[in-house]
Each structure stands twice: as structure tokens, then as C-alpha cells.
Design a protein that fits this description.
This protein is of the alpha/beta class. It has a domain of 197 residues: 3-Layer(aba) Sandwich (Rossmann fold). The protein has eleven helices and ten strands. Strands 6-7-8-3-9-10 form a six-stranded mixed beta sheet, with helices on both faces. β1 and β2 form a beta hairpin. α1 packs antiparallel against α6 and α4 runs parallel beside α7. The two termini are 29 Å apart. 37% of the residues are buried.
């Protein structure tokens, strides 16, 4: 379960967020006709969907269906052959990954992208780099506790401390990531993404490597992130119990193309989904 006092910590973080809270809108985030090929092989073909603000939108499909490729196009790692990625009216295609992150889109990865020889605290602080205004030279010479760099450091550490409390990482805060089990590393990566204060959070198989108890906690944390952080979540996950339990809408795909988009009940009962994905798990 999430650590006691999480609601208070989350509320404090939420008060510090700078983005405007607006009602749910289909114009918040959408992809239009995304397509990409690798060596003549069509990995994703004309994929389109829209995501409501503050909702959980899940993408499912068998391995190799193009799910992570879509995330890579959204986050700027791949440039699509055609199509657009629209966030609050702005096209993200063509922007570098760091600029997309500054626009408020953060993500986790299938293969964990952390600094293994750094501590949990250090990795979470790295998530704050896009919000840091003092340069390396200024930060290296923090002349006294009232300096701009010192004040910024304190503020960023306060935000990271709240995330540590929220994800119940207190016992490993000073541990090196290389020494942590896989499930804990996934939580640290989630924490680093939260430290970026995203408005859209892409989670790529966040429960991979977690035990049953950790997965139960993750379900709660994802819902809390949605509700208290007011973050829109795009989720790729193979745990169908999680997908069906927390998703507002689901986009099912196979071989780079859409099968169906709908509510969990609609998707779960669709015969092509059962053949292409759900049947694979049985």
C-alpha cells in the first residue's frame, strides 16, 4: 500500500504545479495517422486516437504490434514517416526528446533507463533538471543559503522528498540503483518521471518484474497519480487485470494497426482482441 500521509504530500506537490487545470477535452492529446517503417517493414500504420485530460488510456497488443514504437514517436525518439502528435494544440513531431519533455511529456521505458551507479535520490533529482534555472557554473558556487542556486536546490529536493514518500522509497533512498531488485528499479524510474512534473505520462510496462504485492501498490499509485497529480496517463501493459481494472479507454492493436478503441468491457469482448492478444495469455 502507499505510504501513510501520501494524500498530504500529493496535495502539496499539486499546489506547486504551474500548469492550468482545465476540464477534460478530446483536444488535450491526440495522434493523427501515425505511420513509420523500418527497412521497408511497416511497424505502425495510420494509427489515430485521442485522449481525454486526466484519463488513463491504455494501448494493448501482442509483442511486436507497435505499442512501444508509438511511444517512441510521441516522445521524439523516432520521427514518424507521416502523421502528427498534438498536445494542447501544438504538434510535437520534429521536436527533440528534451524539448518534448519540457512541453510536459515524460515517460518510462521497457528497458529501465537509470544511472545504475547513482543513488535513488540522485536519479530522482535528475528528473528535476528541466525545471532548474541556475546553470552549472552558478550551481557550483552556492554562496550561502540565500543564494538563488541554494534556494532552487532546496525546492527541488522538497519535491523529490514528497515523491519518495509517495512511492514508499524511504528505505532505499540512499541505495545505489545497481543494487536494487528489478521491481524497485521500475518504481525509481516512475519516480524520476514524476519529478519532471509532467502533464502527460507515458508508462511502458511499469509492472514488469514486480511481484503481486508490488503490482497491487502500483495500481493504487497510478490511480493516485491520475487523481491527485492531475496527470493524463498513457499506459502499455501486459497485465490484463491491471489494464481492465484502471483504464478509462483502451486502444487494441495488432501488426501495427488498430483493432478497436473503446471501454474495457468493449475491448475485452471483441473477438479480434481475444484472438490477437487475450487468447495469447491463456
Amino acid at each position: 500500500m502507499a505510504a501513510p500521509g501520501c494524500a498530504t504530500a500529493l496535495a502539496a506537490v499539486t499546489r506547486e504545479r504551474n500548469y492550468e487545470r482545465r476540464p477534460a477535452s478530446m483536444d488535450h492529446f491526440r495522434v493523427e495517422n501515425l505511420s513509420i517503417s523500418f527497412g521497408g517493414l511497416k511497424a505502425v500504420s495510420n494509427v489515430s486516437f485521442s485522449v481525454d485530460r486526466n484519463s488513463i488510456f491504455s494501448i494493448i497488443g501482442p509483442n511486436g504490434s507497435g505499442k512501444t514504437t508509438i511511444f517512441n514517436m510521441i516522445s521524439g525518439i523516432y520521427k514518424p514517416d507521416q502523421g502528427r502528435v498534438i498536445c494542447d494544440g501544438e504538434n510535437m513531431v520534429g521536436l527533440t526528446p528534451d524539448r518534448i519533455a519540457r512541453k510536459g511529456i515524460a515517460r518510462t521505458f521497457q528497458n529501465i533507463e537509470l544511472f545504475s551507479n547513482a543513488t535513488v535520490m540522485d536519479n530522482l533529482m535528475l528528473g528535476r533538471h528541466i525545471h532548474m534555472k541556475t546553470g552549472v557554473f552558478t550551481g557550483a558556487f552556492m554562496w550561502g543559503p540565500r543564494s538563488k542556486a541554494a534556494r532552487e536546490e532546496v525546492k527541488n529536493r522538497e519535491i523529490v522528498e514528497r515523491i519518495i514518500d509517495f512511492l514508499d522509497l524511504q528505505s532505499i533512498r540512499d541505495s545505489f540503483v545497481a543494487n536494487l531488485p528489478y521491481g524497485k528499479r521500475k518504481l525509481v524510474e516512475l519516480g524520476r518521471a514524476l519529478a519532471m512534473e509532467p502533464k502527460i505520462l507515458l508508462l511502458d510496462e511499469p509492472s514488469a518484474g514486480m511481484n503481486t504485492e508490488e503490482k497491487e501498490d502500483l495500481n493504487i499509485w497510478i490511480k493516485d497519480i491520475q487523481d491527485d497529480y492531475k496527470v493524463t496517463i498513457l499506459l502499455i501493459e501486459h497485465d490484463m487485470n491491471m489494464i481492465m481494472g484502471i483504464s478509462d479507454r483502451i486502444f487494441a492493436m495488432s501488426q501495427g494497426e488498430k483493432i478497436i478503441e473503446g471501454t474495457p468491457a468493449e475491448v475485452q469482448s471483441h473477438p479480434e482482441v481475444i484472438r490477437a492478444y487475450l487468447g495469447e495469455e491463456r
